Amino acid sequence: xSKQQRxxxxxxxxxxxxxxxANATLLQAVAQGSGELPADVRVGVCVPxxxxxxxxxxxxxxxxxxxxxxxxxxxxxxxTGEVAAPMxxxxxxxxxxxxxxxxRAYHRESAELxxxxxxxxxxxxxxxxxxxxxxxEEREAGSTEQVVGAQLDExxxxxxxxxxxxxxxxxxxxxxxxxxKSATAEQAQAVHAFLRARLAAKGAxxxxxxxxxxxxxxxxxxxxxxxxxxxxxxxxxxxxxxxxLAICRAAAVTxxxx
Length: 258
Ligand code: 13P
Description:
Blueprint: E1 8-13, H1 20-34, E2 41-46, H2 52-59, E3 64-68, H3 85-89, E4 95-98, H4 101-106, H5 111-124, E5 127-132, H6 136-140, H7 144-156, H8 161-164, E6 168-171, H9 185-201, E7 209-212, H10 217-224, E8 231-234, H11 241-253
Parallel strand pairs: 1-2, 1-8, 2-3, 3-4, 4-5, 5-6, 6-7, 7-8
Helix pairs in contact: 1-2, 1-11, 5-7, 7-9, 10-11
The structure holds 1,3-dihydroxyacetonephosphate.
The site of 1,3-dihydroxyacetonephosphate has 14 residues, from strand 8.
């Protein structure tokens, strides 16, 4: 499938932000604003799990997809504090971020654990958004491809081609997350092309590949115009309805219908 045939996807990762009142305003604005986008632009939000019921109530019937930022590697059991993928689907959720660099760094999630979480998400019928990305030290050492390739391979090794085709993969360079310093469109495209080739070798060439890391209304269009960038995973800018919707519109103008 050529770039022109792949839909765009923009997903907000709220991280640990939001309270009931502010969420309501944001969700309603996103639901309303997304109604004006062309059909080949998908929009999603990944919220803190405690707000899934609220999110379902406010987004059901809209075109916005929703989900969580992590799932347990277990289906159920004595795992205090964990939330299992089937619990998430009880609230109509479709998406689950797995392997975000903040979880890899602050919760010591290994590539192996991320792969198991991806399997649990798939089994529950969720679309896993598998995050990969290198640190600044790794980039400067010239090992970006080695790092992101190994992170992706660990996941792909556990999946069939059919399962791999159900993934979304997000390239999020750690040095670009929350820093205001996005990767350039050329830097991001180079890594995306590398990841696309890995996915193609697995028989999953059409997996949506999102870029994440300081995406803003000002830089989104240039990033989304790259042939292997199918959209974005948006942190800080997803908390402001006008910014998030502007990024969605940037996806729209770079989509087929746009
Ligand atoms: P920022 O957009 O705040 O840089 O965060 C990116 C990110 O980590 C999304 O998952």
